[in-house]
Structure formats: structure tokens, C-alpha cells
């Protein structure tokens, strides 16, 4: 059973917005007292919160599907629907959020950071909110928009001050257990540590965190062993401590060769842009297991060469707790220097949010080739949202959509793009609502006199042409002339007489 997970894919579905309500107030002696349909509630958001009490993504490994509540629909008597509650998901500090394409959306590297991973849908307006002085009793309401739905990838990069790196069974877990209150699993076989362990160390007045990274082997940066899977946890560390095993029994291994292998793997691991390469960070060397006589002799043999390379070397024994005090104070010194350097750096540039210009384009028209002619696709947040809010079973709602699109300038842009009457128009990416564009569909909502819920502009055009009217006129004149002639023939035949008695 897994107990530590640092990568997981979340399947999120934010709450949908509630539909607006169509209602007309009715009272005694007031059969139509005005619209009173309430608005629908907004759908709940899904928010990721960096929580220092959470250390693993195991919860989301076991339950990757998360959904927030929907907004409630509006009701009559101006009663608005309730908003859906936000769903907060606590994640470890150091979690990086990326989308399906790998683009970084957020880096939750400090406690308390909140990130809206999936935004809830917008509630639809009721007919009371849509009423105007010229549209006094709308027979339609807006639908709620769907909440965001998709996949996000969470990747945990441990936030620690010092990283312990070294070969398997070099004594890193024993060292972190001796330096701090952490109690990792310790055994005498390789790859005992299967996930990073964190420990808090106090050296004088300095408190810092130490991360025990699972053992590295040659080829770790290429995916061998467990190194590549956990090397990401070294990215955020200020200093590195190389733990070298001086009592190894494996043939062909010694502290110097182990260090060379580890350095080559750290050099081959790419760090994100803007971060200091791993080998350019402060490094110390700890020669472990000097409580073993042969290991003590080997440590004394290799120490001069390590110091000649420029490393500060400490001979320690995690089991016997030899040399740990000097090591902890040396690590604290490196951490304090790094903190002082970061404090002296200029503050990050302030983020400036500028509103969009009033004349900024709110949509674009893209012409695409189709089997039966060009397709004009309208792209933009507003047109797509308006289509989602439209009830296409209600003619008045469709007419309201036509009014909004015309006022936004969609019709003029279609003319400029070469669209003609009957052209295929699609709003939004992918499969969406397809329209046969009629450029004469202008905004006359304030002149509509039809029943509520209907729009006369959407009725079929049955107006006769001039030739048809001329033919109808001549047919009526011929019919009247034939009727007069028939009356004359009947009078001459004596079938009837005038009032004065003449046949």
C-alpha cells in the first residue's frame, strides 16, 4: 500500500450555474403585476490550498475525481437560487499545478496560497432582471453556464533547506533520524527509503528543514532506479549534503567514486528556468559510518583529496552520533547565508493588473473551409457564454441572443469577413450551435407585440412579392368583372328584377 505520492492527476468538475426563473406575479385584481423570476445561483469553485499540515498527495491518488456543488435555480417572488459551496482541496506546500499540455498554472510554494483550479458556472438571470422599460414582461430567462471540467496534474516538490543525497544505504535515513525527530524506516538493504522524509533540525538559534532524498545510482537522471522520480525534491533546497558510505562492502565502490557518480547525475538533471543549477549550490560532504574501524581509516584517507576539491568535510556516525553537532551548525551557517542573500535581493516586481481597453476586440471571426462552403466561426468569451445561456426552445430567448450579438458588432464583422445570407455561422470551438445566418435579423425587441415567449422575427417570411401582388390584383379584377357580367345575363333572362319592377 502506497503511503507517499508526489504526482497525481486530478479530474475536476466545477458546479454548474443555476437557471434563471420565468415567473409573473399574480395578485387579486392584478392578473399581471410584473415579472418576478429570480436569478440562478453560481456554481461552486474548486480551490487548491497550500497546507503545511499535508505532506503527501495520497488522498487524491485514492480519490482523483472531485466535484463541487451546483448552483440552485431561481424561483418566483424574486427568490434567487443559492450559490454552490466552494470545494477546498488542501495540498502540500511546494505543489506545482500544470495542465494537460504541461504548462505551469500555479506554484503553491508558500503556506496559505489559494488557487482556483476549476471555476464554477455563472448563474442565469431571471426574467425580473431582464425586464426593461420597453420589454416589461420577458417570457424567457437565461440558463446557467456549465462549470469548468477537465484534468490537472499535481506535482509535489518538497520545500526544504538542505537535501541529503547519496547512494542507497549510505545512512541518510539514519542521519535525519539522529538530527531531527523524524522517524523514517531504516534497514540494511538498498532502497529502503521509497519516499522523501522531512525533518526539522535546530542548531543554536537556527531552525531549518532537512529532506532525505531516496538513494541515487548511476543513470538516475535517465530514469534508472528511484533517483529520477525524486530528484525534483532537490530543486527547492538551498544546500546539498553528500552522505558518503565509508563502510560499503560492494566491490568497485569507494567514497570518491560514489561522489563522482552523484555529481554527474546532479549535473545531468535540468532545473526549471530561473533556478540555480544543483551543482552551483553550497555543498558539504559527510563521511558516514566512521564508527567502523575500517571506515574510519578510509575516511582519513579520502578526506585530504575531498578538501583539495574544495569541499568542507565532516566525519560522522549517524548511529553513534559522532560529529553531528559540528555538522548541524555548519548546515545552519549555510542556511543563514542563503536566507540573508535572499533577503538582500530586490523585492519581486509588483504585479500590475490593467483592465482591458474599452475598444478592445471582444470576439474574432475565423473563416474555415467546409464541405458545403466556408464556415464562419465566432470566438470570444462573451458570445460563447451568451450561447450557453440561451434556451433555444424559446423564440424570445433566441431573439434576445440575436440582439446581444448585433449590439456587440458580430453582424458587421461577418459582413466584413465576406458572409452572405445563408452562410453557416458557428459560435465557439469544437461542436457548437450552428446557425444559418440571416443578416436582416436586426434588433427590434422593443417593437415586438407578439405573445410572451415568441419572436416574430423568427417566423417564416410569407410576404408576397410585387409580381404576386399584381397577379392577385388582376385576378380579383377579373373575378369582379365576371360577376358583373353574370348579373347582367341573369337580369336579361328574367331571373330577377329591380326594385321598380323592371326585368
Automatic annotation (TrEMBL):
HAMAP family: GTPase_Obg
SUPFAM superfamilies, A to Z: Obg GTP-binding protein C-terminal domain, Obg GTP-binding protein N-terminal domain, P-loop containing nucleoside triphosphate hydrolases
Listed CDD domains: Obg
Keywords: Cytoplasm, GTP-binding, Hydrolase, Magnesium, Metal-binding, Nucleotide-binding
EC number in record: 3.6.5.-
InterPro entries in alphabetical order: G_OBG (IPR031167), GTP-bd (IPR006073), GTP-bd_Obg/CgtA (IPR014100), GTP-bd_prot_GTP1/OBG_C_sf (IPR036346), GTP1-OBG_CS (IPR006074), GTP1_OBG_dom (IPR006169), GTP1_OBG_dom_sf (IPR036726), OBG_GTPase (IPR045086)
Places the protein is found: Cytoplasm
Protein name per its UniProtKB record: GTPase Obg
Gene that encodes it: obg
Binding sites annotated in the UniProt record for Mg(2+): 173, 193
All copies of domain Obg, residue ranges: 2-159
Record GO cellular component, one term: cytoplasm
Superkingdom field: Bacteria
NCBIfam families reported in the protein's UniProt record: Obg_CgtA (TIGR02729), Obg_CgtA_exten (TIGR03595), PRK12296.1 (NF008954), PRK12297.1 (NF008955), PRK12299.1 (NF008956)
Family of this protein: Belongs to the TRAFAC class OBG-HflX-like GTPase superfamily. OBG GTPase family.
MF terms in GO: GTP binding; GTPase activity; magnesium ion binding
OBG-type G domain span: 160-336
Cofactor: Mg(2+)
OCT domain: residues covered: 350-439
